[in-house]
Amino acid sequence: MGKRITSQARGHGSLVFRVRRQAYRYKIEYPLVLGKAKIIKLLHSPAHSSPLLKIQIGNKIFYNLAFNNAFEGQEINLNEKDIKEGDIMMLKNIKTSQRVYNIENNPGDGGKLIRSAGNSAEVMKRGENSVFLLLPSKKIKEFDEKCRATVGVIACGGRLDKPIMKAGNMFYAMKAKGRKWHRTSAVKVNAVDHPFGSGRGKRIKSKIAKRNAPPGRRVGHIRPRQTGKKR
Q1: pTM higher than the cut 0.85
Q2: Cα distance between residue 106 and residue 119, in whole Å
Q3: Does the pLDDT of residue 204 top 70, yes or no?
Q4: Residue 59 lies in a domain
Q5: Are residues 113 and 209 in the same domain?
Q6: 110 and 191 fall within a common domain
Q7: b vs e for 170-186, b when ≥16 Cβ sit within 10 Å of the residue's Cβ?
Q8: Is the dihedral of CA 54, 57, 61, 64 positive or negative?
C-alpha cells in the first residue's frame, strides 16, 4: 500500500511538515505615517536570508530588510525628498538608475518583491503614472508610481559564497523555513508512492491539477495551457 506523496503530506498539515511559528514572528511592512525614522536594532530571523531592521517612527515600530552598511541608531526618511540608502519612498520620487528593493506590487500592500539577500532592482524609465524597473531576472516590469520601495541593496549578498559543507546544516536551515530536505525526483521513488513513480522508460504520467485545488492536491501539471508534443 502506498503513502501520501511529499506535497500531499505538507498540505495535510502534519507535525512533520508544519512550519515553526517563531520563524515567522517578524512581519515586514511599510507604515502609513511619513517623516524621519530611526533604526533601533538589527535582528536575525531564521525565516529570512538577510538581517532585519527594527525601525521606530513616532510611537510605531515596524520591520524591514536590512540594506548594505546599515547600523543601529541610523536615521532614514519615509517619503521625503532627500534620497539616501535605506529611505522608503514612492517610485515616482526615486531617481533613474537607482537601486531599490522590497517593492510593493500595489500601493499600500507593504512590499512583496525583491526580498532575498543581495538582490535589488533598478529604476529604468518612467511612463504615464507608472515606473519601469529592471528586475534581477533581467525582465522589465511596470509598477504604479505610488508603489513604495526601499532605496539600496539588501545586505548579506555573499552568504552563498561560503559552502554549507554538511547536509545536516542544510537540513536545519531548510527546517527553519518550513521546507523539506532532501528533495527527490518523482520518477526515482516507487510506483506505489507517487503517480510518476518507478519511471520505467521515464514516461511520466500526465496529471492536471485544478486551479483552486488545496496544497495537497496541487500535484503534477498546475493548469497548463497545453500538454504533450506541439504539432
Answers
A1: no
A2: 20
A3: no
A4: yes
A5: no
A6: no
A7: eeeeeebeeeeeeeeeb
A8: negative
Q: Which distant-in-sequence residues (6+ apart) come within 8 Å of 110 by Cβ?
A: 28, 29, 30, 104
193 class by beta-carbon count within 10 Å (0-12 exposed, 13-18 middle, 19+ buried): middle
Our separate counts of H helices and E strands in the chain read 2, 12
Least confident of 75-84, 127-136, 154-163: 75-84
Q: What is the grid cell recorded at 28? A: 515586514
Residue 207 phi/psi, 5° resolution? Answer: -145, 120
Kindly indicate the confidence band of residue 115, based on its pLDDT and cuts at 50, 70 and 90: very high
How far is it, in rounded angstroms, from Cα 229 to Cα 85? 50
- Euclidean distance between CA atoms 87 and 84, whole angstroms: 6
Scan for cell 554549507, then name that residue.
164
Considering the domain architecture, whether residues 139 and 54 belong to the same structural domain is answered as yes
Q: Does residue 142 share a domain with residue 197?
A: no
Do 205 and 145 lie in one domain? The reply is no
Note down the domain range covering 188.
6-17+180-222
Q: How many domains does the chain have?
A: 2
Kindly state whether residues 143 and 109 are assigned to the same domain.
yes
Tell me whether strands 99-101 and 208-209 are parallel, antiparallel or unpaired: unpaired
Residue 48 lies in a domain: yes
Rounded CA-CA distance 58/211 in Å is 44
Mean pLDDT over the full length of the chain: 85
User: 60-69, 146-155, 188-197, 202-211: which range is least confident on average?
Assistant: 202-211
